[in-house]
Amino acid sequence: MPGLGTTFGRGGATTAQQDLANADAILIMGSSMAENHPVGFQWVIEAREKSGAKIIHVDPRFNRTSAMADYWLPLRAGSDIVFLGAMINYTLANDRWFRDYVIPYTNASTILREDFVDTEDLGGLFSGWDPEKKQYDSETWLYDGASAKSEGTQPGMHENSGGHGKDRSGEAQNLDHPRRDETLQHPRCVFQVMKRHFARYTPRMVEEVCGIPAERFIEVADIFTAASGREKTAAICYAVGWTQHSTGVQTIRAAAILQLLLGNIGRPGGGIMALRGHASIQGSTDIPTLYDILPGYLPMPMHDAESAGDLAAYIKKNRSPKGWWYNLDKYIVSLLKAYYGDAATPENDFGFEWLPRLTGDHSYFGYWLDMADGALEGLFVMGQNPAVGSPNGKLERKALTKLKWLVVRDLVETETATFWKKEEDCDTEVFFFPAASHVEKAGTFTNTQRMLQWREQAVEPPGEARSELSFMIELGKMMKARATELNRDAPLRALAWDYADDDADQVLREIHGKSRDGAIKHFGELKNDGSTSCGCWIYSGVYDGENKALKREPRGRYGHGWGYAWPLDRRILYNRASAAPDGTPWSERKKLVWWDEAKGEWGGDDIPDFTRGKRPDFAGDESRGGDEALRGDAPFIMHPDGVGWLWVASGLKDGPLPSHYEPLESNLPNAVHPRQQSNPASNRMERPDNAYASSPDARFPYVLTTYRLTEHHTSGAMSRTLSHLAELQPELFAEISPELAKEVGVANGDVIKISSARAEIEARALVTGRMPSLDVQGRRVHQVGLPYHFGGNGLVTGDVVNDLLAISEEPNVRIMEAKALTCDVRRKC
Amino acid sequence: MKATEERLDELRRQAERTGRVDAKGIRAAGAPLPEPGAEHGYYGLPLLKPPVWTWEIPLYFFVGGAAGASAMIAVAAQVSGADETLVRDARRIAALGAVISTPLLISDLGRPERFLNMLRVFKPRSPMSVGAWTLAAFGTLTGATVLADELQRRTDLPLTFVSNAAGAGAALSGLGMATYTGVLLGATAIPVWAENVNMLPIHFAASAVASASSLLELCGHQHRALPLLASGAAAYEVYATREVARSGVTSTALKAASLLSGPIPLALRLLGIRSKRARRAAALASLAGSLITRFAWVEAGKVSARDPRVPLGLM
Amino acid sequence: MTTTGFLTDSTLCIGCKACEVACKEWNDVPDDGFLWSGLSYDNTLTLGASSWRHVKFVEHQPRTGCGGNAPGHSTWQFSSDVCKHCGNAGCLEACPTGSIVRTEFGSVYVQPDVCNGCGYCVVACPFGVIDRRPDDGRAFKCTFCYDRQKAGMEPACAKACPTGSILFGDLDKLQRRGEERVEQLHAAGMDDASLYNPTDTSVGGIHAMFLIRGDSRAYNLPPKPEVPTTLLPRAWTAAGIGAAAMVIGSLAAFAMCGSGRSAKR
Ligand SMILES: Nc1nc2c(c(=O)[nH]1)N[C@H]1C(S)=C(S)[C@@H](COP(=O)(O)OP(=O)(O)OC[C@H]3O[C@@H](n4cnc5c(=O)[nH]c(N)nc54)[C@H](O)[C@@H]3O)O[C@H]1N2
Ligand SMILES: Nc1nc2c(c(=O)[nH]1)N[C@H]1C(S)=C(S)[C@@H](COP(=O)(O)OP(=O)(O)OC[C@H]3O[C@@H](n4cnc5c(=O)[nH]c(N)nc54)[C@H](O)[C@@H]3O)O[C@H]1N2
Ligand code: SF4
Ligand code: SF4
Ligand code: SF4
Ligand code: SF4
Ligand code: SF4
Ligand SMILES: [Mo]
Question: What are phi and psi of A89, to 5 degrees?
């Protein structure tokens, strides 16, 4: 989550769902939290009930979340940055920002280079755009006087890397002594540049682009910004209604900027709650299933001239001189020790050479297109159902036919396992392995608020079903047994694969780490000399003496003692910011962590996200480097300058500040920057089997958005097969407004056809005022909403909504645009 | 558990075979949605559950009613010293009715093998319980009457007292048989039944009397009391029809039933007093009317349960 | 044993249907058909033999700027319906087998091993709750999780409810709590909030109360439910009249016509 990572230093939710109960206002946008995170939503209700917090929901549809909110503003899908930009503008223009917080805790005062040119002056582009390579060079975005750390492309800007490495951010440049103007008057200081940048984002513009009446916007902006400051805090919750856009990361950035300006980060009832999806999706970025990072957000080494090299070069390139990432060397060496055990020695660079290298875009869609072109021989699909869940389903299913073999491990026979039944001409050999479900095996989930919770095995798996762990252990053993003497098998030979069968506990202990001499308490004890090993440094601490993920003894306001939140069981990140620079709480009502002079350490209701003994007036010891070099009033400890970044100088591929662009398919011109229709850095991956409608396109006059229903889960493999769930939403429907229904001559319950440039599907029409038509730029815009849970197998079946979608890549995380595209609707005759 | 799994298996098989599960896709009326509200309740959906009874129950109402009235007629005939064959036939009809009634009632139970659970308790507050006991008593007594009759005829045993006493008891329970079904329907939550609670037991009694006397007439008995009784019942039905119509209950079946039980047989009997064929026709009409009446009332109950306006007080 | 009850607070309900699913899961209730209704997000539509909890989606046209929580705008009100466990239960009164009993918790419980499927409870329930399952033949409805309560646990639906919309506990306390909540909501400007508990009718109060906004009729909750047993005196009187008429009528008819000419032809 580079939106949060670049701004604050870590790519995870800054807060815990329980803490939402302490908020004075909550903005839920880009998520239907009540439907998709119903258990966490209880704390939103608690805030509403206990302290009268105002709940604001901004969503194209009136859904179960809107029904619980005080305000619901329907917006046109894909226009969020205009709304948030206008919130930022409103905050600045009406002096609602929290000055005493912003000046010391953000880079507002940092002065930027003279040669930076904003979108205002370049027709929607930032300076540094290379039209040939279709990417930015971020040189001009750097701080004044700061030099790019290494020659060539900065790590986060490399075309082969995704943005996940940037979840940590901050290694891009020397930020030891940025020039600052604490009066914020300097025309090139971040604050002034930002003020000018967002000046265009007015309530009028919100009305024009989002379709939200200006006075409604102002009402809500007033409520949200007034619920922030010393005495109050407001929180923002989002999920994939924000991320699944060609501008997803920048949307989250806009929210992050807003929360920094309002002083809502690191404080109780504040923060940004990134609501994550699958049960352990946070876990699968921490210990990644992603191609461009290693466990604990260590970047994946590259295989090209400029990044090639040994461990020392890797460390030099990726380590920060100041701030927490100074410790990167300890973490990578300990990780290599965990991987290769005794085979990893100082002499052989701890086996750094054995790590795979990025040789190109190995992102999800990248390899899927390669597969479609016949470049892939085999594929393991484990715990995923791409035939239904992934965009351009048709193309994905076609691509599967080009494989020689496919292994599917799942609880049920998914559409991905049975795709061949509907494809002519398919030679793919499919192996289906039954998988044990979460109740049939032990292990941890890392939930949306970075908390690891261990669950015991409740029942034995049926039949031949087995856990991932036992499968992978055995697969690994088999592969090792077949390793040849060839050089390419060296990593396989070196791999320490000494697992006993199906024992998740041993894995958690490996993740926690150890030293040559015995146990370690947490990552603070990791070394760069090979004397320690650790499978994922951020998790280190979870097995300090006992399995803390297994603990179920909550105490205190934040339930410490129940599970274990990384890092070091801190529940609210950057919580040093809950106290003023001098270490005293901003207010009695909102105190969380403060400096206890008597004890000479930080204390409070949460575990300080700060070096315990570092005094608030500590000036930073430049000579020591790392965390020691940061001041006592620098709460954002991952960043080399210790502050939150309103301005991201490097690491985001589509600009240092958010800017509105229309979705890749849109019938409306970009009202903010008419010359730049869509995000220039995003990748359309256009090809005949991944065609796009033009913008505008008379064939596809309506906006299409997709979403979830509480009653089903994602591709439906786990819900369409269970009668208790399937009967609750037994058929695919499309939500359309009464106005659109009239226009296309459709009655509630009719079967309709929905088509895009890729495909056509059928669904029932659910005609409802919950899906309103909007006035946007003088036109009436109709939106069509489709839940995407249906497919061909199971108790209830339906067409695959994802056949309508295009494969596309947001530049930073390479996610598809699933929330805003164009379509046509007509009655089935 | 078993039912669930089997059903699921069945659905899975179907899904596998055809790729779809049939039992879905009803068409909602109107666009946009009918809004729930004070005017039509929750999307106009039924508030009450319709009776689950199938054809056996109204048929049982008819048979049981006719049998019950027949037992009463037997006593009246006997007391008035009427022909023995009339008494015997009336008793036989009663007994036969009881014999037919029981399987009808049982077969409509969801769990027929548990019929005897009906006699587990006696609950005066439950018309169904009262009815079950009444049927049990009626069956026993009519059986005893006929048995005593037959034994006496074949063996000359002195059983007159027994058969008469049993006959009297059968008549008493027969009164229950003819009327309790009206209570059974009337004392429910189903609006059209509950609204007509004052009338239904009498209505059913009249209809039972009409069918019993009609049956005896059709057996060839020409006692003048029979057409008289039938005419009286038909006359009441004419009155009842007006009452029912006034309470707003309309259904073709009920209208047909009313015509067949009231005006038609009455007219035939009054106008064709001398004609055998008219009497036969009248008897047949009464029987048909009585039968259809029970079906129509059960059906009206089903229709009525579907309309949420009455229980919601919207009418 | 104290009498236990439910207070289902619609203002806290998010319509997630976890209660429906938990009930089915715990009690092993089979599916109720895979029918898409087209009526809001409600495909369960009613309580029945195989749906013991039912979340209603009372929907009105939403208006920009107002979420469902705004005073005067109950735009999408969710309400989880369940058997009312009536103080005077029509189903219990009507049951001829004694299958339906009142438990030590004050709830109304159908003993599945006694029910013979006569179907009389179905027409005796003024709330349209209990029904006969066609394939099984017996009548089913919410058991108030008698087995769980016996074991000192709360009902499955209440346990699963993430928002505290389904409160379970001592009936009297819940009644008071419901009244307080109504006051609280009124103070917050939601003057259309009320507690649905027909104490002033023959039903004599229900053990599953509902806190709702707006007109109870929009939820298919009858304003004046009556137990059908109240009709018994009238019904039996009519039956008495009918019987008397039969006795008098037949005796009189035969008396009038004497013994004459009754022989079979
Ligand atoms: N019951 C249930 N819970 C789930 C899941 C499930 O399938 N079922 N899935 C899990 C997973 S994997 C995830 S990732 C999360 C996702 O959780 P959510 O992000 O809440 O899921 P969605 O329903 O896809 O989208 C949220 C909302 O975004 C709105 N939306 C669409 N386009 C836009 C837009 O342009 N701007 C704004 N502001 N809103 C827009 C949609 O109308 C929808 O209400 O949920 C998790 N929880
Ligand atoms: N149009 C559109 N498309 C979308 C989205 C959208 O909002 N709109 N959302 C996207 C998002 S956020 C997501 S997360 C994806 C989800 O898409 P997928 O991940 O493809 O869909 P799931 O149904 O969650 O697939 C999970 C599979 O794992 C299986 N499973 C569960 N537990 C286990 C286990 O322990 N072991 C194994 N081996 N298998 C297991 C399940 O049975 C299921 O088949 O969909 C994406 N696609
Ligand atoms: S399904 Fe699991 S993760 Fe999702 S809301 Fe329910 S309890 Fe939470
Ligand atoms: S609501 Fe109906 S089923 Fe439930 S106790 Fe009352 S009468 Fe019986
Ligand atoms: S169906 Fe069962 S529970 Fe209902 S009244 Fe008959 S015996 Fe009692
Ligand atoms: S109390 Fe038990 S049986 Fe009744 S609805 Fe709740 S879970 Fe179902
Ligand atoms: S579980 Fe609770 S919140 Fe969810 S639908 Fe049921 S009552 Fe409402
Ligand atoms: Mo997700």
Answer: -60, -45
**Domain range summary for chain A, segments of one domain joined by +:** 702-827
- For residue C135, give how far its alpha carbon lies from the nearest alpha carbon of chain B (Å): 8
The listed CATH number (3.30.70.20, 1.10.10.10, 3.90.190.20, 3.40.50.1970) that belongs to domain C4-226: 3.30.70.20
Ligand 3 atom at minimum distance from A279 CA: 3
Closest-CA residue of B relative to C114 is: B117
Looking at the DSSP bridge assignments, the partners of residue C61 are: none
Report d(CA A272, CA C13) in Å as an integer.
25
Spatial contact of C16 and C220, defined as CB atoms under 8 Å apart = no
Which residue, judged by its Cα, is nearest atom 7 of ligand 5? C115
Q: How far is the CA of B187 from the centre of ligand 6 (A)?
A: 28
Closest residue in B to C44 (Cα) is: B45
Q: In one letter, which amino acid is A174?
A: N
A contacts of C9 (beta carbons < 8 Å):
none
**DSSP type of residue B57:** H
Q: With a 6 A CB cut-off, is C48 part of the ligand 6 pocket? A: no
A230-286, pLDDT tens digit by residue? 999 999 999 999 999 999 999 999 999 999 999 999 999 999 999 998 889 999 999
Q: Residues, chain A, total?
A: 829
Q: Is C108 in the pocket of ligand 4 (CB under 6 A)?
A: yes
CA contacts within 13 A on the Cβ side of A682: 26
CB pairs < 8 Å spanning A and C: 134
Q: Do C238 and B118 touch (CB under 8 A)?
A: no
- Closest among A479, A492, A474 to A409, alpha carbons compared: A474
Cα separations in angstroms, A722 against A494, A654, C24: 44, 43, 11
Interface contact B12, partner A, CB < 8 A: yes
Residue C196: phi, psi to the nearest 5?
-90, 110
As a three-state string, the secondary structure of A95-128 is CCCCHHHHHHHEHHHEEECCCCCCCCCCCCCCCC
Q: Does B96 touch chain C (CB under 8 A)?
A: no
Local structure of residue A448 (DSSP, 8 states) = T
The answer to whether A585 and A592 have CB atoms below 8 angstroms apart is yes
CATH number for the domain whose boundaries are A702-827: 2.40.40.20
Give the list of residues 6+ apart from residue A374 with CB closer than 8 angstroms, or none.
A402
Q: Tell me the pLDDT tens digit for each residue of A591-644.
A: 999 999 999 999 999 999 999 999 999 999 988 889 999 999 999 999 988 999
Pick the CATH number of B56-299 from 1.10.3720.10, 1.10.260.40, 1.20.1630.10, 3.30.420.40: 1.20.1630.10
CB contact under 8 A, B24 and A738: no
What Å distances lie between residue A418 and A385, A433, A793, CA to CA?
11, 13, 9
Residue type, A319: R
- Residue A765: both structure tokens together: 């029409």
pTM of the model: 0.93
Which sequence spans correspond to the domains of chain B? 56-299
Residues 6+ apart with CB under 8 A from B169: B137, B141
The two tokens of residue A325 are 């990432």
Please tell me whether residue A464 adopts helix, strand or coil conformation.
coil
The residue extents of the domains of chain C are 4-226, 231-264
Q: Contact, A650 vs A158, CB < 8 A?
A: no
Which phi-psi region, left, alpha or beta, contains residue A532 (left: φ > 0; alpha: ψ -120 to 50)?
A: beta
Cβ contact B67:B213 at 8 Å: no
Q: How far apart are CA A230 and CA A220, in angstroms?
A: 20
ipTM of the complex: 0.92
A147 — pLDDT class (breaks 50, 70, 90)? low
DSSP A189: B
Contact A1, A12 (CB under 8 A): yes
For chain B, the distance separating the N- and C-terminal CA atoms, rounded to the nearest angstrom, is 43
